[in-house]
Request: fold
Amino acid sequence: MKKHLQDIFFDHPTIKGNCWQTVLACMTDKEIDEVPHFVDIDENQGGPDWFYYSYMWLWEQGYRLVQYDEYPTKQGTDEPWDGYVMVSGLSPRGDFHHVVIYKDGKLFHDPHPSQAGVKTEVSFEILLNR
Reply:
């Protein structure tokens, strides 16, 4: 996995950071500019469509995005998922969401240069080959 750092940072109300784009680049072993900045291209600027666009793009790349309300576990156990998990939550830098990568239940990579992670864990996504 390439550990990229995001190069666009949230600045309300006009600039949407590219942490999601950067994390998808990391997870798919692509360069950042090979992944669309889904949050920015959405007409609603962060509305619900960006996730759908992400899902469809990942499908075209050969992946299936699976979302969970809590940290995923190994099937039939209480042990944390033993792969990479995208974890979204509140940013430690303000009242907006951020996404990072966990492995084995712990922070593995934060695309923000601060490496501060997230304050809260709200949603969890994994990529599976389809």
Remarks:
- The CA atoms of residues 1 and 69 lie 25 Å apart.
- The chain has a mean pLDDT of 91.
